[in-house]
Amino acid sequence: MSDIVDSDGDEYDELSELRQRHKPESQPSVDEAFDLDDLLPTIGEFGKYQKLLVFGICLPACIPCGFCAFNQLFMADTPDDYWCRIPELLDLPLEQRKSLAIPMEVENDELVYSKCYTYGVNWTQLLESGEEDDLTTMEANSSWPLVKCSQGWEYNTSIVWSSIVIDETLASFPKHNFDLVCDQDIYPTIGLAALNTGGPVGVYLFGLLNDRAGRRLSYFICLATLLAGSLMTSLSRDFWTWAGSRVIVGLTIPAVYQIPFIISLELVGENYRSFVTVMTCTFYTSGIMLLSAVTYLERDWVRLSYITSLPFYAYFLYMFVMPESPRWLLMRGRLEEALKILERMAMVNGRQFPEAVHLKLEAQIRRDKLKKQKKKVANVGLMDLCRTPNMRLKTILITLSWFANETVYLGLSYYGPSLGTNQYVSFFLSAAVELPSYLCCWYFMDTWGRRWPLSLSMILGGVACVITVMLPDDAVDETLVLYLISKALLSASFLIIYPFAGELYPTQVRGIGIGASSYIGGLGLIVIPFVTYLGKDNLKLPLVIMGFVSMLGGMTGLRLPETLHHRLPQTIEEGEEFGKNWQFKDCCRCAQKPDVLSQPASYENLDVLAGSSNNESEMELELRDSRRVREPTPRIDERTPLDTAASGSVRPVHRPSMKRLVRQMSVMDTQRTHDGTMQLTHWI
Question: What Gene3D superfamilies does this protein's entry cite (predicted)?
C-alpha cells in the first residue's frame, strides 16, 4: 500500500513540476498558444475527411500544371524535314522538284537537301519561254545562285502535321502563316521563354495572395487565370498574340501546383505529410505521362490546346466543397471559421472534438466580439527573411539550390523529346522514371535526412549529364539512358527541395519564402530554353551545361542545416536560431540519430493546449495509457531550438513516467505499426 502511495506521490510531484515549467510568465492571448498539431491526433490526422479532400480535390488539382506547362513543347513542334516552297513547280512530283530547285548540303556528315536555301532561278520566266516540257529532264546547275526561301516552306508531315511552326490547323481556321524555321527558328524558344517569364511574377503574387487572402481564394483565381490564358492560346492568329497568351499561362506555373500542395499539407497531421508530398508529385508526374499519350493521339495544336485546358473548367465545382485551411484561419485569428471546419473534420472522421479546446476557442471568439474590432494581424514580407544573419544566409542558400534544381529539372524535361528515336516515347520515359525516384527518395529523406539526399542526387545527376559528352554521336540509346538516369536523380531532388525549404522557412513566412525562392528559380527558367536551343547544333552541349549547374547547386545545399529529428521553427525568431551553430563538420554527416525515441502520442494533451489560459488553475491531462508491454526504446529530444539556446548545455532530466505527460512536440522518428509497416516522420 505504501508503494502505491509513494508512486502516486511521485506522479503528483512530476505533474506539479511539469505545470510549473509550462506555466507562462506572462499571459499571452489564447490563440497564440494554440497549436493545431496538438489537436489533429485527437480529431484525426488522416481520417476520412482528409482522405476525401486530399485524394478528391487537392491531388487532382495538381494535374493542370503539368498539362499546361508542357503541352507547348508539342504545340511548337518542328518537323525534321522541310524545304523551300516553289509555287511554280508544285505540279511536278515531289522528288523531282526537290532535285531541281533545292541545293544539297552536308549535315551531320550526310548529304541532304537544304532546308533554308533554293536556287535563285526565275521559274516563271523559264515556264513562259515554252521550255516547260524540258523540266522533266532538266537537272540543277551548281552554278546557279543560292537565295534564302522567300515563298514559304513545304514540310514532311508524316509525324508532325500541325503546330504553330508549320501552321497546319483545322480547316475552319484561316491560315496563320507562322513558318517559324530557318532565320525564325528561335521563335518557338522565345515562346517557351515567354511562358517562363510569367512564372517568377506569378509565384510571388500568388504567394502573397496565398498567405493574405487564403489558400482557397488564391487557388481559384490562379485556375481562372490559367484557363483564360489557355483559351487565348487556342484563339491566337499570330505568333506574338500566342506568345502573350503563354505569358498569362506562365503566371500560374508553378503556383497552380504549389497552392493545392500547401492545402494538402495543412489538412493532415505531421505523420502523413511526407506521404502527401510523394502523392502530390506522383499525381503531377502522372499528369505528364497522360499528356504524352494525349499528344501522341492528337497532333493538331489547336485541338491539343483545347483538350489540355477545357476539362479543368470542371474544377470550379470544387468551390462548393473545398474548405479554407483551418491552419491559415487560426494564423489570421479567424477562430470562429476555423472552429466550424475543425468540428466538421472531427465529425466526418468519427472522432469527438475535445470540449476543452471547444470552450477555449469559443471564449476567445466572445472576447473578440466584445472588443468589436478585428484583431490586428502582423503581415510579414520578403524583407523579414533577410533582417537577421542566419535567416538571411539560409534564404540565400535555399534560393541558390532551388534555382539550380528547378532550372535543370525543367531543362531536362524540355529536352526529353529531342533525344532518342521517338519524341513521344522519350517524353513518356522522362516522366515515368520520376515515379521510382520518388519512392526511393521517400525512404532516404526519412533515414539520411534531407540535406544529403538533395545534394547527392543533384551532384550525381549532373555527373550523368556531363559524361554524355564522352559518347559518340551515333550512341543514341546510350545518351538517352544517361539522360533518364539524370532525370530520375533530379526528380528526386525536386521532391526534396519543396519540403526541405518548407522545413527551413518558419511557418510565419513559409508562403512568402517558398514564393520568393520560386521567383528566383523562375529566372533560370527564362534562360534554360535558350540553353536547350543550342542542341540544334550540338546535341550534347545542353546536357553538359545543365550538368555543371546541377553539381554546383548540389554542393551549395551541403551548407544548409539538417531538419530531420529537429523541432521545426514556427516564428522568424525561431528560424534565426535554427542552425545558427552550424559547423563545417556538420555537412560531412547525415541526419543525427535522436538521443531518445518517444512512443507515439496516446493521449490528449489538454494541459499544454490550455497552458496560456487566463485562469490560474490548469486542466488535468486526459491520459489513455496503453497497458501493453513494449520493448524499451530510445526517446527524442523534445526541445525547440529556442529551448536549447535558452538552456545552454544543461539538459532537463526526463524520468521514465514523464513521457506520458510531456507533449510530443513533433514526430521525429520513423514510427512503425505493430506489423512493422513504416509510418512517415515529421514533415513541414
Answer: MFS general substrate transporter like domains
